[in-house]
Design goal:
The complex is a heterodimer of chains A (109) and B (113). With 109 residues, chain A is mainly beta. Chain A has no helices and 9 strands. Chain B is built from no helices and 11 strands. The chains are: A mainly beta (109), B mainly beta (113).
Chain lengths: 109, 113
């Protein structure tokens, strides 16, 4: 399983775009990049997954450069309710799902 | 609305007692995960099953923890005997091998006194 590195915490303001970058230098050919979000007192929730280039859904965008050694989760126009911990995971279909420490995002009014 | 159901939501028990946590995965999912979350250690994978067979339980203290899937609709995590250091939130998640996405339950908050 590829190791991931992401910032421990980030602060931003309501209405701003937030970008959280994750490094995964040892990503394997079969690996996907997946992001989860966890609110206090809840289990993690899947946000987005990608393999290369760009993926967008109703919640976020995921940017993956050609070398795939990093990825950036982009949250457009955040609100207070986006305050949560965001986890970047790298693995394939046959891997167990391992969580790191995540990035604690705090949105300020 | 399909969801993973965990029971109980909260459990307070005395040290030395047996604790059993239950999980009903989403119907049709073939993979079940058990995680433990604490402030210090974060989310730790304890065990996971695919098609009811245990694939990996290396994250689980073997002397006191056990995980089983008696059938496709029920997964259990048992601690015997429980210790104060087992106090944590225990999450169950289910998914399909083809998707790599896991759906989490609301968790069981365990307090061992």
């Amino acid at each position: 399983l590829a190791k991931t590195t992401q910032p421990i915490s980030m602060d931003s303001y309501e209405g701003q775009e937030v970008n959280i970058t994750c490094s995964h230098n040892n990503i394997a050919t079969n690996d996907y990049i997946t992001w989860y979000q966890q609110f206090p007192s809840q289990g993690p929730r899947f946000i987005i997954q990608g393999y290369k280039t760009k993926v967008t859904n109703e919640v976020a965008s995921l940017f993956i450069p050609a070398d795939r050694k990093s990825s950036t989760l982009s949250l457009p126009r955040v609100s207070l309710s986006d305050t949560a911990v965001y986890y970047c995971l790298v693995g394939s279909q046959d891997d167990k799902i391992i969580f790191g420490k995540g990035t604690r995002l705090h949105i300020l009014p | 609305d399909a969801r993973v159901t965990q029971t109980p939501r909260h459990k307070v028990t005395e040290m030395g007692q047996e604790v059993t946590m239950r999980c009903q995965p989403i119907l049709g999912h073939n993979t079940v995960f058990w995680y433990r979350q604490t402030m210090m250690q974060g989310l730790e994978l304890l065990a996971y099953f695919r098609n009811r067979a245990p694939l990996d339980d290396s994250g689980m203290p073997k002397d006191r923890f056990s995980a089983e899937m008696p059938d496709a609709t029920l997964a259990t995590l048992k601690i015997q005997p429980s210790e104060p250091r087992d106090s944590a939130v225990y999450f169950c998640a289910s998914g399909n091998r083809e998707d790599t996405e896991a759906f989490f339950g609301q968790g069981t908050r365990l307090t061992v006194v």
